[in-house]
Amino acid sequence: MTLLSQTTTTPCPVKIDEEGVPYLSIPNHPELRLTPYLETDDDDLIKLFNDPEIGKWSWRRPYPYTVEHMDFVTSALPQRQALVKLITETLPNPVPLTKFDSRYFPFGVLRHVPSGRLIGDMYVGPTSSFSHSTVEVEEGGTQFEDGEVWEMAYNVSSQWQGKGVGSAMIKTTLEYLKWQGVKKVNATAEVINAPSGGVLRKNGFKQVKIIQLVWPEEKGGMTKDCYSFEQLL
Ligand SMILES: CC(C)(COP(=O)(O)OP(=O)(O)OC[C@H]1O[C@@H](n2cnc3c(N)ncnc32)[C@H](O)[C@@H]1OP(=O)(O)O)[C@@H](O)C(=O)NCCC(=O)NCCS
């Protein structure tokens, strides 16, 4: 794996709460933060994934989502906790991108701070962990190093939708990725998912092509048109 020289002039967006836990703030929503996952979040995450307004858009994630499916999340908990520790120790400098070999980022929980409840999630990680390609070449010839291209996916619970939260959560995540040294971010949204396309466009993503994704057999196996979005940071 190539060792990247990380030169970032972006100010550090990571803050530390009164208990020493790092988080990202959400613009215009002081009551919300992007925070690390806690073991006590399991029930809220299952509830989020079973929200019909969220489940209907999920491609490979099971729907209905049950406690048996949580293995995918809980098995990564030790790695997540180690990464949170590393980030905290390295501040205000970013952790080298080569340390991010897993399909998650350490601030994946959108939390309502007064209640402590999980009300959404942000799923972002190197594209190489979403697919098998590790290096991308831009049309103009730009060669991206391993780890410099990341993929983004997100959900906001239906009670919180339409209040600017999704858009603000993406904005703060992009600031984090820029600080981290990520050069390009990809995202995919169904053509008919207007809110998802809306929050991406509002945050500077460009719609580059239409792709057809095949849904799993147990969800009908149908093919759906999706926009492929990208943004150079
Ligand atoms: C997609 C999602 C994260 C957006 O979050 P949100 O908090 O509801 O969105 P916001 O309130 O920030 O909306 C921001 C912009 O999105 C667009 N938008 C939102 N709802 C829209 C709708 N029904 N039709 C068209 N555009 C819409 C608007 O451009 C809006 O900008 P505005 O404030 O200038 O009107 C949220 O709706 C969600 O979780 N949906 C279900 C799960 C999902 O689709 N996940 C993504 C899978 S690819």
SSE blueprint and pairings:
Blueprint: E1 15-16, E2 22-25, E3 32-35, H1 42-49, H2 52-55, H3 71-74, H4 77-90, E4 109-112, E5 117-126, E6 149-156, H5 165-180, E7 184-190, H6 194-202, E8 206-214, E9 223-232
Parallel strand pairs: 6-7
Antiparallel strand pairs: 1-2, 2-3, 3-4, 4-5, 5-6, 7-9, 8-9
The structure holds coenzyme A.
Pfam families: Acetyltransf_3
GO molecular function, one term: acyltransferase activity, transferring groups other than amino-acyl groups
InterPro entries: Acyl_CoA_acyltransferase, GNAT_dom, N-acetyltransferase
Can you give me a brief rundown of this structure?
This protein is of the alpha+beta class and 233 residues long. The chain is built from 6 helices and 9 strands; from the N terminus they run E-E-E-H-H-H-H-E-E-E-H-E-H-E-E. It has one domain: Gcn5-related N-acetyltransferase (GNAT) (Aminopeptidase).
In words, what does this structure look like?
With 233 residues, the chain is of the alpha+beta class. It has a single domain, classed as Gcn5-related N-acetyltransferase (GNAT) (Aminopeptidase, 3-Layer(aba) Sandwich), CATH 3.40.630. Helix content is 24%, strand content 25%. Strands 1-2-3-4-5-6-7-9-8 form a 9-stranded mixed beta sheet. A hairpin with a 5-residue loop joins β1 (15-16) and β2 (22-25). The protein is globular. It binds coenzyme A. GO terms for molecular function: acyltransferase activity, transferring groups other than amino-acyl groups.
